[in-house]
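Q: I have 308 residues here and want to know how they pack in 3D. Can you give me a structure?
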Amino acid sequence: MTLSLLLALLPIALLIALGAWLRHSQFLADGFWPQAERLGYYVLLPALFLHGLSTARLDGVPVQGMVLALVSSTVLVAALLVALRRCFSVDDAAFTSVFQGGVRFNNYVGVSAAAGLFGAQGIALAAVANAAIVPTVNILCVLVFARYGTAARLSLGGVVKQLALNPLLMACAGGILLHVTGLGLPLAIEPLLKTLGQASLPLGLLCVGAALDLRAVRSWLRPVGMSSVAKFMVMPLITLAACHLFGLKGEAAVAALLFQALPTASSSYIMARQLGGDAPLMAGIIAGQTLLAALALPLAVSVLLPWI
């Protein structure tokens, strides 16, 4: 499994490196990348999840166990971060970035790694993981911004609206609904969504590489380190305990562990800007964790695999 994970991560690392080169060599104009991220987040990745869940064979997937393990571990780590708030020695705005770094995850890296490990079944496992974690982390992050952010507070209606309009959550809900009802996708739509979904992973990983900024990492070593400890050590350990608690085993447990050891999402920067966080620090955490993931992700999964 360790070798399979490394082989699955190799093309991911190469695509991220290619994205970094394309951005910093100015091969593509700077204006291309924000639009590419928007296309991936609102069209391509939702198409992948909608197609994956609506056509997946979920008979052997312990959906309930995965959801319980992923949601409980995410909530517990979030609670620990808030409880240890005073230990971080940063201001409130900076704490929101440390918090996001500890609980959010990069969809593109996770789906690519799951697909590399388990093929079509990996897409289904990744979609279930996203259906569980996406609403959980969004609720938690909005609550933390409401308490510690410097922007205008979101009302309960604003939180609900943000979740209801989340394209990834909408795609997961739609895919599950089509699967459960047996309606499936129309014959003319299914190949379209499949093609769009296949395009999401390489484009998304190129965007991850383009967003890397090593200068930001050097400016924020301590908070980057704190958020990375939470993400690559504490989160996987608690997820492993949750898998045992809820009887989650096999490929589903590996997928859960994989998703909880991912670097934080590049979209965290947008949330930090919009809701009163420390956006420059968030950029440093994103870059630092993306680089660290090349070593931390396979190490965390490999070390914990024998205990699954």
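Q: Anything worth noting?
A: The chain has a mean pLDDT of 87. The CA atoms of residues 170 and 253 lie 25 Å apart.
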